[in-house]
Amino acid sequence: MIRKALAAVLLLAAFGQAFAAVDVNTANEDALRGIKGIGPTRAKAILDERSAHGPFKDAADLAKRVKGMGGHTVERLQAEGLSLGPSNAQAGKGGGAKQATPAKAATPGQPATTVTVKK
């Protein structure tokens, strides 16, 4: 009886892992390789590009920056569980304001307008 219960729990845990989304901006090589269609070479290419040029903004950015991955490939990988989460460090943290940026260029005689966005 205990063996059957343990087997059921392990089976459910295995299926839970299979359907978990993997964020391309935070995943390690093993997590990326868990996605059907990403082998060791593609996982290394994704990690190398991410470490060299920062997180991916969206699916088009991923397709553009990683050699051998086009839009169709990225769509297929997203269907397999690959996700593109927040690309900046502030997105996952609560509180604080983003850095103010000029909304438009200042015209002579008028100060620049700044916009501050709070989460």
UniProtKB/TrEMBL annotation:
<keyword id="KW-0238">DNA-binding</keyword>
<dbReference type="Pfam" id="PF12836">
    <property type="entry name" value="HHH_3"/>
</dbReference>
<feature type="region of interest" description="Disordered">
    <location>
        <begin position="79"/>
        <end position="119"/>
    </location>
</feature>
<feature type="compositionally biased region" description="Low complexity">
    <location>
        <begin position="98"/>
        <end position="113"/>
    </location>
</feature>
<dbReference type="InterPro" id="IPR051675">
    <property type="entry name" value="Endo/Exo/Phosphatase_dom_1"/>
</dbReference>
<protein>
    <submittedName>
        <fullName>ComEA family DNA-binding protein</fullName>
    </submittedName>
</protein>
<dbReference type="GO" id="GO:0003677">
    <property type="term" value="F:DNA binding"/>
</dbReference>
<feature type="domain" description="Helix-hairpin-helix DNA-binding motif class 1">
    <location>
        <begin position="30"/>
        <end position="49"/>
    </location>
</feature>
<dbReference type="InterPro" id="IPR010994">
    <property type="entry name" value="RuvA_2-like"/>
</dbReference>
<keyword id="KW-0732">Signal</keyword>
<dbReference type="InterPro" id="IPR003583">
    <property type="entry name" value="Hlx-hairpin-Hlx_DNA-bd_motif"/>
</dbReference>
<feature type="domain" description="Helix-hairpin-helix DNA-binding motif class 1">
    <location>
        <begin position="61"/>
        <end position="80"/>
    </location>
</feature>
<feature type="signal peptide">
    <location>
        <begin position="1"/>
        <end position="20"/>
    </location>
</feature>
